[in-house]
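REQUEST FORM: STRUCTURE PREDICTION
Request ID: SP-0412
Submitted by: Lab K.M.
Chain count: 1
Length (residues): 398
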Amino acid sequence: MKSIQRRDFVIGSLTSLGSLIALNGRADAVLSAVLPETNAVADVSAGLNALAYNVAVLGDTHYDAEPESVYHSHYDESNIHSKVQHAEFKRNGAMWRERCPKLLAASAALARQNKTDFILQLGDIIQGDCDHVPTHQKMLDDCIKMLKKPYPGDMPFLTVVGNHDFRGKGARKAYFDFAHPFMTAEIEKLTGKKRKKPVNYPIVSFRKGPDLWILCDFERAMLNKICNIIDKDATARHVFIVTHGPFTTYANTKSYRWRLGGGTRALESRQRLFDTLSKRRGIVLSGHTHSTTYYRFENSLGSFCEFTGNSVWTEKSPTDATPKNSTPEEYTPAERFLKMIRNKDDYYSEINFFKPSLKEYYETRAAGHYRLKVTEKSVEMEFYPCDAITPGRVFKLK
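STATUS: Completed
RESULT:
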């Protein structure tokens, strides 16, 4: 593994956010207990040139609240998945009672101590399943306010669409009616430029300084469109693709084709995107799998990386950065997942598309928060397990 263990560093006198918080069961109380009133940011990165920037990154958050009636009083109990979804409501309520607010507070504390340009969330920002448009809209509004509140000032907040974000009756229109104007305003704030056209999924692109950023509705067929955007911007320094569903087939799931490009529709254009990313040393940032996963690919055309983030901090989540899998040879399903896959030949054809070029691999079910550090010559992702304020691992993405 070339992913390196970075020497621990201490921010201020903080050693554990847990020691600072007197939990009372309310997310807003947890945040206010940790964070100061001031919006001032200590710029300890003054030595960085103007082309360097940092991003606070959150994986899936599945925002929800207790009791279930807050957002799910209109839930259609005839849903064939109701048993599973009620279990998710219970899981989310428990997470957001104390664990996720602590994780969020840790990320915000780092943003206050270090120059941070924006916040990036990787989809499934809410649980959804409201089955009532006004309630779904309220869930989105409450979530954005909750997630933005602890960060300094009016920091730009970007999110990419996930499958939960429009799950439920009337939810698709409710989400995009929210996301299009919200993301337009946030991107304009980040870039300092008025967009020629408002944000309109399934694909959104913009320049952050010299870098190209592309945000995708992962369930739509769009891999050729992504390639066209990258090819037309030959001068971009770094190329970032942000998608909820990963590009790389995730090994440990029976839903191995729920991915960027729309399942089987991605098969014809997948090779083109793989080659385009390799030539440009691109970086894919994704969520969805509820894992922290890193892939580095290399072939005769070049190399690229994908990093998958996860902020779903369940009580069973590992609490450190120790990997479950850490070599390319381990990019294969756990036996319990393989038993659930009906067409194993089809599954292995997916794995075997990526495996020959896979040079580095890391996977853990640990949740956490992340910091993307972009400079002229490099891109790194720092992984902070749970509510840690020192990185458990640092991944070199470029």
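NOTES: The chain has one domain: 17-396.
Reviewed by: T.R.
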